[in-house]
Amino acid sequence: MLSLLQTVLLCAGSLISRSVVCPAGSLTGTYLAEQPGVPISIPVTSNYTGIKKIPDDDHPFIAPGPDDQRGPCPGLNTLANHGYLPRNGIVTFAQIVEAVGEGFNMEYDLAAALAAFAMLGRGNAYLDLVSIGGESPLIPPLPGFIDGHHAPYGISKHGRFEGDMSITRQDAAIGDNVNFQEDLYDELLLYTGKYGDDSPVTGNSSVVTLKVMQEFKYSRFLEDQVKNPVLEYHPGRFATSYGEAAFVLEFFSNGNCLDLH
Ligand code: HEM
Ligand SMILES: *[C@@H]1O[C@H](CO)[C@@H](O)[C@H](O)[C@H]1NC(C)=O
Ligand SMILES: *[C@@H]1O[C@H](CO)[C@@H](O)[C@H](O)[C@H]1NC(C)=O
């Protein structure tokens, strides 16, 4: 499954380089005259191998304002809430790669592939801008309106990146696919209570494990087949949705059960 995930993401990743070397020569109209393209820069890989406090004092939590974009990705939302990403939620390719590296130690190639997927699927790669939430007036439509006469929708929009059977977001056809849903989280807690590991710090049956995620995702799959008549669970979505379960285990681990010394 990992190789499928890698394949899907690397394909998306390879497209970004094409968008860099492919100036919109074939596109015409006033748009291009008014709006020169922005080359997408690839940030230098960090060579830092020590331990860092995250978030540090320079990155305090500030709740998003009414015009700040937040969306279906708890990782990106958190990074914006702490200023590792621009707090307005309008971000560039390099900002995503650097922020997920610094904030969550996400490895460079995976970060670049995900950022590329978001940028190409729901952003404006011509201007190197994508919204981590919904449509924003800060991001103009694509050259030649190749994705419609509107601002790019942002990653909240169902269909390309955002998809069904999420952990804490409802399927778009059923309910709120963008914001945290307490009933789904309660379901995850139920499965944690049933299958989770014991911890001397957080209590018995409190640690979310691979087993918890497997059982929970399978139950979500059965549930969605009953509730969602237009359920989309194709191989691409399969890879990203299970990838996101792995993100919870890998990136949201709190270190309680590890010896960090
Ligand atoms: C590298 C750039 C990233 C991009 C472009 C990205 C984008 C997204 C998108 C579009 C979704 C919604 C998919 C859905 O419909 O379920 C999502 C979900 C998710 N992301 Fe990210 N993400 C990134 C990095 C991260 C990081 C670093 C973390 C963890 C720290 C993370 C954790 C998650 C989780 C746990 C979900 C599932 C939420 C849920 O189902 O309730 N992501 N991400
Ligand atoms: C990391 O990179 C910086 C800047 O390029 C350099 O000054 C430093 O010596 C490097 N550190 C290590 C451990 O390689
Ligand atoms: C957790 O489980 C262990 C082993 O089953 C038991 O001895 C202990 O009392 C439990 N702790 C709590 C807080 O329930």
Structure description:
The chain has 261 residues and is mainly α. It folds into 2 domains: 63-162, no CATH class; 163-254, no CATH class. The protein has 8 helices and 4 strands. The chain has a two-stranded antiparallel sheet with strand order 1-2. It has a two-stranded antiparallel ribbon with strand order 3-4. Strand 3 and strand 4 (203-207) form a beta hairpin. Helix 4 packs antiparallel against helix 5 and helix 6 packs across helix 7 (210-227). The longest helix is centred in the N-terminal third of the chain and has 20 residues, at 2-21. The chain is globular. It starts with a helix and ends in a 10-residue tail after the last helix. Residues 72-76, 96, 100, 104, 106, 111, 114-115, 118, 155, 161-163, 166-169, 244, 247-248, 251 line the site of protoporphyrin IX containing FE. Residues 198, 203-204 line the site of one 2-acetamido-2-deoxy-beta-D-glucopyranose.
